[in-house]
Design goal:
Blueprint: H1 4-11, E1 17-22, E2 27-34, E3 37-44, E4 52-55, H2 66-71, E5 77-80, H3 98-111, E6 117-122, H4 124-135, E7 140-146, H5 155-164, H6 171-183, H7 187-190, H8 192-202, H9 207-219, H10 225-229, E8 235-240, E9 252-256, H11 262-265, H12 267-280
Parallel strand pairs: 4-5, 4-6, 6-7, 7-8, 8-9
Antiparallel strand pairs: 1-2, 2-3, 3-5
Helix pairs in contact: 3-4, 6-8
Length: 289
């Protein structure tokens, strides 16, 4: 595999990428053109092994993984801001699907000249990785699914979300209701810091962007059980004890305290989970050239 440090130096000068480097902590910030518009990418390069790619869920941005990134000092990492989130605000404003998101991931890997990655996804990010690995298993050494919804929402749930969309304009109320789903019914009162984190994250999204991403990742998502059982990449899963998602079939499952936002609520447990995913990759990892 080509040395990633040399790769980053080359990509820095490519005309179709805008880049900014923080040399003190060896992070390269780029925006890469994809089928869903320009996607913000953050790369920390420390070795030439296949890097770990982190994808966040709806409402959040790449900072959801800050604890894990800061403590993975011996492995190259890549985070992105998913479409319409964080610095990826130029995403195309049209109807798009989870399959479009999975195509975006492969286009990012192609643009970065990365044959393989280890992939960790939270919620929407996990759903995206699953679909990318289903069609391009050769691009993934191992996968960790955090808090991944994989069953199609019931008619009742879909109706509930569409009704709630009428109240998105009441952002303070809406965010508190989302917090109850994401963290648990008592979370807003028992853990106001989690509510503050969510309020800050959601504050970066317009009402239209909230509706779009909820439609994409919750209301319109199809059942992916068969994709999990047919997966050809080593993978494990993690969820919160009070998480609303089910237990994915055929995957070793780690259950941690908390609800649907384990990278934030159980950061050390998720870091341990990432290390376990890294160990899964050793069987398929090839020596660097």
């Amino acid at each position: 595999m080509k040395n990633l440090i040399m790769l980053v130096s080359t990509l820095f000068f490519q005309a179709n990428l805008s880049a900014q480097t923080n040399s003190a902590i060896n992070i390269v910030h780029k925006k890469i053109k994809t089928n869903l518009g320009e996607i913000a990418v953050q790369m920390r390069i420390v070795d030439d092994k296949p890097p770990i790619l982190f994808l966040h869920g709806i409402y959040f941005d790449h900072h959801l993984w800050d604890y894990q990134i800061e403590n993975l000092t011996n492995r190259s990492t890549i985070t992105i801001d998913m479409p319409l989130h964080g610095a990826s605000k130029s995403a195309v404003s049209k109807d798009w699907t989870l399959e479009d998101c999975s195509t975006m991931v492969i286009e990012l890997l192609d643009a970065l000249n990365l044959p393989k990655v280890i992939a960790i996804g939270h919620s929407w990010g996990a759903m995206t990785i699953l679909r990318a690995a289903a069609t391009h298993p050769e691009r993934f050494q191992s996968i960790g699914f955090c808090n991944m919804p994989f069953k199609e929402a019931t008619t009742k749930v879909k109706s509930k979300f569409r009704f709630q969309h009428m109240m998105v304009g009441l952002r303070k109320f809406y965010t508190k209701e989302v917090a109850k789903v994401m963290f648990g019914k008592d979370a807003p009162s028992k853990h106001p810091e989690w509510l503050d984190y969510l309020r800050t994250a959601m504050g970066k999204l317009t009402n239209k962007e909230v509706r779009w991403t909820e439609e994409l990742a919750i209301i319109n998502a199809k059942d992916a059980s068969l994709k999990i059982t047919a997966l050809k990449v080593p993978a494990i899963a993690l969820k919160g004890r009070t998480d609303y998602v089910g237990n994915p079939p055929n995957l070793k499952l780690t259950v941690v305290d908390g609800g649907h936002v384990s990278p934030l609520v159980a950061p050390q447990e998720v870091l341990d989970f990432v290390h376990e995913v890294m160990l899964l990759s050793t069987e398929t990892e090839t020596p660097s050239l």
